[in-house]
Amino acid sequence: MKVDVLLGLQWxxxxxxxxxxxxxPKYNVVARFQGGPNAGxxxxxxxxxxVLHQIPSGVFREGVDNVIGNGVVLDPxxxxxxxxxxxxxxVDCKNCLSISKKxxxxxxxxxLLDAAYEKSKGDKKIGSTLKGIGPxxxxxxxxxxxxxxxxxxxxxxxxxxxxxxxxxSILKAYEFEYDLPELEKxxxxxxxxxxxxxxxxSEYVINDYLxxxxxxxxEGAQGSLLDIDFGSYPFVTSSNTMTAGACTGLGVSPSRIGxxxxxxxxxCTRVGSGPFPTxxxxxxxxxxxxxxxxxxxxxxxxxxxxxxxLPALKYAVMxxxxxxxYMMKADVLNDFKELKVCTDYKHEDGTINQELPYDLSTSxxxxxxxxxxxxxxxxxxxxxxxxxxxxxxEYIDFIEExxxxxxxxxxxGPDREATIIKEEVPA
Length: 427
Fold this sequence. Notes:
This protein is of the alpha/beta class and 427 residues long. It has eleven helices and 20 strands. It has three domains: 3-101 and 200-261, 3-Layer(aba) Sandwich (Adenylosuccinate Synthetase, Chain A, domain 1); 104-195, Adenylosuccinate Synthetase, subunit A, domain 2 (Orthogonal Bundle), CATH 1.10.300.10; 264-421, Alpha-Beta Complex (Adenylosuccinate Synthetase, Chain A, domain 3), CATH 3.90.170. Helix 2 (76-88) packs across helix 6 and helix 3 packs across helix 4.
């Protein structure tokens, strides 16, 4: 049995939550392998909208185990709120949610540090969600962080106080004002709340699932172009968002990876600062934002919008070993008579190719576009590939030829039912 991986191929917000929810009935286990509450996975079904931040998106499907892996950084306060919202929606995840003991804890002071660091950057802000993600990963790499398993130790309070003292010395240097006692009240209450849930050695559990022929879907957060190594550095997240991150974030070997489902929007969006070659700062970009309801699920910030960037998509496909492509939000392009996709970059020295420059944040590339006829019709109600307008199929055919990977799923609406699967997806 293999671990299938589902991840985003752009700058995040591709629609991973919806697709995990659609695929989850085919799997025994859904496991998050990186990121933290800066992720916002939106799911819609039965007339209701749900937003998850740390809990895997298989939680709404009966009989599916959900694992928060060791590669995740976890905010207990936000996790408690997530669980309580699920309870309000009639979903009790006490028996279907497990948390790796090796997942890093986000402390209140991590969030304060995040705000202090971001404020100090002035007009060079990276667009942090201020959830404490970066500082928590910093402590992990510095080998001073606290993990979920530490909650169960007798000297947790001493470990906590020691790390907080270190954080406060940094905050003092930044002359950052804060009220820690009030934040700590919620933190400790959430810690006690989480003790009701299963803390596990997730690397053993995941591999035992595979040994007993149980199917596992690894769920990524953010997007490939935000990867700490291969994204548009320094405007990136703090973890490895690639397929390789599923191995280190869950404790499975590379030989255990099966299908890699890569998700992309039929156009591009980005939240926060950073380079965006195909960004449209015009009426077309505003139209994409309005029709696509492009506002961050975690922060509510308006997303920057632009045409599909195929060189960047091909780059992400290469790095992840994508075996199947899923195209999301095709319905957002319903009202466009003409569409454009970027096929090449013209660099500052005049050369034209498909390669992302070493430092996309300081290099200027001019996108070279190819135009397509828009479908200019409503896709609502279509449920099979053959019924899609010829313009949609021509658009998909070009993408498939360009990146060399088949598009096997097309989303034409936010609801789980508004999903067209071209062929049976292996599980």
